[in-house]
Amino acid sequence: MDKKDINFLEELLYNTDKNNLISQLSKVDNPLMLHFYAANYNWNSGFDAPRAILENKTCDFGTGLLMFHYADGYRLLENSDEVSSSSLEKWKDFLSKIYNKLINLEFKSQNISFDPGLTKIQKYKLKKNNLNLPDFPISKSPGEVVDIPKV
């Protein structure tokens, strides 16, 4: 990543105009830039920016998996009823949308790898509680491992 890319990423991360940010994210045509943005995003800032990334056609499967876990998707895997009964509508909607997109492989590419970093015990417990759980949300995704710059 060169200085120009880092500057652009910083501009996106510190953009306070939500409409402008959503517009810019929808135009990003570099899957790595979307991945780096999602990895550095402040998840307390809501789901508008992550939703824009998810809806961007260049969003990679690995970025989708990263966003699923960074949005606390583990809780959905652990206890979907708890998530369903949550009063956090935007969070529930985002998790549902991203999970469905992941499970249906609705991503253009699978070039960026993401490892959720779950232990064997965590994976075992999740599989034990849900025998139909596919491997993708709990395992490293296909693609190349990339170093994520901290911005």
Mean pLDDT: 92
Residues in helices, as a percent range: 55-70%
| Cα-atom radius of gyration | 15 Å
Major sheet: none
Q: What is the distance, rounded to the nearest whole angstrom, between the alpha carbons of the first and last residues?
A: 12 Å
What overall form do the CA principal axes indicate? globular
Structural class: mainly alpha
Task: Identify low-pLDDT runs.
Answer: none
The fraction of residues in strands falls at under 5%
Descriptive notes:
With 151 residues, the chain is mainly α. It is built from nine helices and no strands. The protein has helices at residues 3-13, 18-27, 31-40, 48-55, 61-70, 74-78, 80-84, 89-103, 120-129. Helix 1 packs across helix 3 (31-40). The longest helix is centred in the middle third of the chain and has 15 residues, at 89-103.
Provide a quick synopsis of the model.
The chain is mainly α and 151 residues long. 56% of the residues lie in helices and 0% in strands.
